[in-house]
């Protein structure tokens, strides 16, 4: 641009200022200002500024376009506007149906608000029109102008939003001030940045600001273009790989070689399911998943999810299991081989197998083996699987808190897996697997759900034929699976879950049984475990009995196995070190190898003074004995209880005291004395009502100063009127009594049926006295009294 032209235009602008009014109606606008030299439409909403337009149109039609500081502010318009704006002339106006107005304006020049003349009803301001100055030399202006043109052309080339008309306009603008305004108007800036250019009166300042904003815009456009190219390259590469794979498939199909083995496998899966056949729902779902798999990109996140799902479906045994001949003689042989005694348990299992042989379609009961630790519950389940010729899978549910362990996770979760039951069948690949749910009484409810409730569907024969795992999400028939559960006690098991199972009680072993099991099973097993020959040393039967009674008195066999394992390790060390040792282990050698026995002849099992009586108790670990003690202490008829008793046992003690007070009818004694009742072994919690007659006997012995007859143990719940009620765990209590040498046992007559079911070898050597009232107990346990003997 030539200098003469520039000064000519500047002179014209100066002369035009004389015709602009000193007072103008203000029209606040939002978002961005309108720069001088532009013809643009504006939509004015209904309100006070419509009147400003009408009043302005009556005169020369000048409006002051001023930018709002905050678009949604509650401040009055005069307090929420910038001080420099652009004056415009109204060229045309059109009324809108909603009361607003559409106006076409031609912006002319910047103005500055000197003061607000009128606020209501219209906003009128006293204004002035600042003169534009170069602010620097003409050469600097030329340099800035050329830089602006170069950068604007660069922006136009990189930005597809620039139309040919916009590019042509930029080429024809020769005035630096107008060029700066035009370029700024086409940039995407913040409101404050636009306003800073409006307020730049000096031309060099305006050019520098626009150049800075233009440079930032170019950098942003270049970065945007780079990102777009990267995305396009990635998409093009994926499309290219897809087309190449499709071409490869077509070529391979034409040649008949190199077909996709995975897709062939899934096609065969679909054929297999249709041939079985399975439910239509399963066919439809698997077809849908196979189609999704074939159309998925191997690098997509869904590809492996679908593949893992189809692999699981392919691995599951959907076919009906082949009928297996159940040989009861073979099954009986296996049970006798693996387990000593437990005749009632074996008989019940053989009954189960006999029913299954007569009716293979019979779903039968879910067996639940309940008994102390170490009595062989898990090994019985293994023997059942071997007898049936089925595969065996053990799933320990003890401590499980998450429902998903039983029913799986939904596939929408990251790392989703099927439940343990579906996983078991995937591993065994047989639908009639024997699944052991070990420690079912130790499941617990957590914040992830209730796994015990989830087992209801699994163990219910009426429901598990259409079991739905959350991951598989297809009906799967579990009715052919033989479920066997184990528990130490059935109290923690929910009643609704227990109702779906048939409970088989396994009691503890007496000493004679342990001796036979030790000689028949454990001897050889422990020697092989430690690498010794069974003839490395010997033990007489009497020594084995001492080992059992003095070192491992628990109901099961784990303690005996650990104790003997320790003994064999001592001998193994002596063999390796070539030290001498006795080839026959005697009782004195046990102390040398195993240390002092933890169990000695129970001096706490024989009542020797008034106020003591021996009771029989049942615990999760089997039966045990309790010597109950009572003494008189200074006080007035109170009762002190110690020995970590539970709430039920405390109630039994209060009932026993009330009964004895009424029974002896000696008020003077209880007015002067209180009673302290204690159950030794205070570290062990004790509870239950079966110690009622034992406590009453101890109290009666105390207040009458009599010692009960030797050799008696007793169990039974007592009422306030002296009735003796039935108790549980009679067999375990008899086993515990025999273990400590009790020869006479008093028990409730109401337990006669349970008593008859106990094998004779367990009852051998013990005299039993069934009673219905406490008076019969008194006749039996105190000297010079004769009771009915059985």
UniProtKB/TrEMBL annotation:
<keyword id="KW-0346">Stress response</keyword>
<dbReference type="InterPro" id="IPR003593">
    <property type="entry name" value="AAA+_ATPase"/>
</dbReference>
<keyword id="KW-0067">ATP-binding</keyword>
<comment type="subunit">
    <text>Homohexamer. Organized in a ring with a central cavity.</text>
</comment>
<dbReference type="GO" id="GO:0004252">
    <property type="term" value="F:serine-type endopeptidase activity"/>
</dbReference>
<dbReference type="GO" id="GO:0004176">
    <property type="term" value="F:ATP-dependent peptidase activity"/>
</dbReference>
<dbReference type="InterPro" id="IPR054594">
    <property type="entry name" value="Lon_lid"/>
</dbReference>
<dbReference type="InterPro" id="IPR020568">
    <property type="entry name" value="Ribosomal_Su5_D2-typ_SF"/>
</dbReference>
<keyword id="KW-0963">Cytoplasm</keyword>
<dbReference type="InterPro" id="IPR046336">
    <property type="entry name" value="Lon_prtase_N_sf"/>
</dbReference>
<comment type="function">
    <text>ATP-dependent serine protease that mediates the selective degradation of mutant and abnormal proteins as well as certain short-lived regulatory proteins. Required for cellular homeostasis and for survival from DNA damage and developmental changes induced by stress. Degrades polypeptides processively to yield small peptide fragments that are 5 to 10 amino acids long. Binds to DNA in a double-stranded, site-specific manner.</text>
</comment>
<dbReference type="Pfam" id="PF00004">
    <property type="entry name" value="AAA"/>
</dbReference>
<dbReference type="GO" id="GO:0005737">
    <property type="term" value="C:cytoplasm"/>
</dbReference>
<dbReference type="GO" id="GO:0006515">
    <property type="term" value="P:protein quality control for misfolded or incompletely synthesized proteins"/>
</dbReference>
<keyword id="KW-0720">Serine protease</keyword>
<keyword id="KW-0645">Protease</keyword>
<dbReference type="InterPro" id="IPR003111">
    <property type="entry name" value="Lon_prtase_N"/>
</dbReference>
<feature type="domain" description="Lon proteolytic">
    <location>
        <begin position="607"/>
        <end position="784"/>
    </location>
</feature>
<dbReference type="Pfam" id="PF22667">
    <property type="entry name" value="Lon_lid"/>
</dbReference>
<feature type="binding site">
    <location>
        <begin position="371"/>
        <end position="378"/>
    </location>
    <ligand>
        <name>ATP</name>
    </ligand>
</feature>
<keyword id="KW-0547">Nucleotide-binding</keyword>
<dbReference type="InterPro" id="IPR008268">
    <property type="entry name" value="Peptidase_S16_AS"/>
</dbReference>
<dbReference type="InterPro" id="IPR027065">
    <property type="entry name" value="Lon_Prtase"/>
</dbReference>
<feature type="domain" description="Lon N-terminal">
    <location>
        <begin position="24"/>
        <end position="218"/>
    </location>
</feature>
<dbReference type="InterPro" id="IPR015947">
    <property type="entry name" value="PUA-like_sf"/>
</dbReference>
<dbReference type="InterPro" id="IPR014721">
    <property type="entry name" value="Ribsml_uS5_D2-typ_fold_subgr"/>
</dbReference>
<dbReference type="GO" id="GO:0016887">
    <property type="term" value="F:ATP hydrolysis activity"/>
</dbReference>
<dbReference type="InterPro" id="IPR004815">
    <property type="entry name" value="Lon_bac/euk-typ"/>
</dbReference>
<protein>
    <recommendedName>
        <fullName>Lon protease</fullName>
        <ecNumber>3.4.21.53</ecNumber>
    </recommendedName>
</protein>
<dbReference type="GO" id="GO:0005524">
    <property type="term" value="F:ATP binding"/>
</dbReference>
<dbReference type="InterPro" id="IPR003959">
    <property type="entry name" value="ATPase_AAA_core"/>
</dbReference>
<dbReference type="InterPro" id="IPR008269">
    <property type="entry name" value="Lon_proteolytic"/>
</dbReference>
<feature type="active site">
    <location>
        <position position="690"/>
    </location>
</feature>
<dbReference type="GO" id="GO:0034605">
    <property type="term" value="P:cellular response to heat"/>
</dbReference>
<feature type="active site">
    <location>
        <position position="733"/>
    </location>
</feature>
<dbReference type="Pfam" id="PF05362">
    <property type="entry name" value="Lon_C"/>
</dbReference>
<dbReference type="InterPro" id="IPR027417">
    <property type="entry name" value="P-loop_NTPase"/>
</dbReference>
<dbReference type="InterPro" id="IPR027543">
    <property type="entry name" value="Lon_bac"/>
</dbReference>
<dbReference type="GO" id="GO:0043565">
    <property type="term" value="F:sequence-specific DNA binding"/>
</dbReference>
<dbReference type="Pfam" id="PF02190">
    <property type="entry name" value="LON_substr_bdg"/>
</dbReference>
<comment type="similarity">
    <text>Belongs to the peptidase S16 family.</text>
</comment>
<keyword id="KW-0378">Hydrolase</keyword>
